[in-house]
Each structure stands twice: as structure tokens, then as C-alpha cells.
Amino acid sequence: MNINTQLSFRVTQYIDDMRTTSKAVAAKLVHGWTFLSNYAHVLIVLAGEPDLRLRDVATRVGITERAVQRIVADLIADGFLSATRVGRCNTYSVHMKARLRHPIEAHRTIADLIAMGS
Length: 118
Prior knowledge:
The protein has helices at 3-31, 38-48, 54-61, 65-77, 110-117, and strands at residues 81-86, 89-94. By secondary structure, the protein is mainly alpha-helical. The mean pLDDT is 83.
């Protein structure tokens, strides 16, 4: 098998895996609910993989890429996240010492949230 065939096979397999993951996430969300918001999910994903494309974050969280873009913009504006341009991509940095916003959880930091989601 030549290198192009191997690469094509791996790309196809990756795409199939992503589709399966997206469908599984969507199916779970249609019939249920979660305790954490999409904002928390996006932060947890980016804390684990700061170089991930927003398209891939959307797939993992189970929402649209546009929704992830809005969430990331909000998180950056409110000081929970930073984006650094590296070539054509962004690298995200989660501000772990930032406090959660709601009065009930304001004694906790983003690091506590990430630790819970990991």
C-alpha cells in the first residue's frame, strides 16, 4: 500500500469516527440534559487540547461551529480565555485562576471546573 492510499484510508477513518462521535453526542442530547453548560464543555475541551480547531471543538461538544465561535468570543471578552495566533491557527489558553461567575460557585476557579471535567 503506497503512502497516498494509507493517508486516504486514515483520513476516511478519522472522518467516519468524527461523524459517529457527533451522532452519538447529538443522540444523547436530544433525549436528555447535562449539568454543565456548553460554555463549560468548550472550556474543558480547550483546556485539554489548546490547539484544537473550533470545528473539532464543535464536534466534540455537539454544537455548531458558529455556536463555539460565539462562546469563545464571550469567554475571551470576559477574561476566561486567551487566543494566540500561530501561523494560520489559534492556540487557546484557559485562565485557570479566574473565578466562576455565579454567586453559588464564585468560591471556585476555572481550574476546579476543568479538574471536574477531566
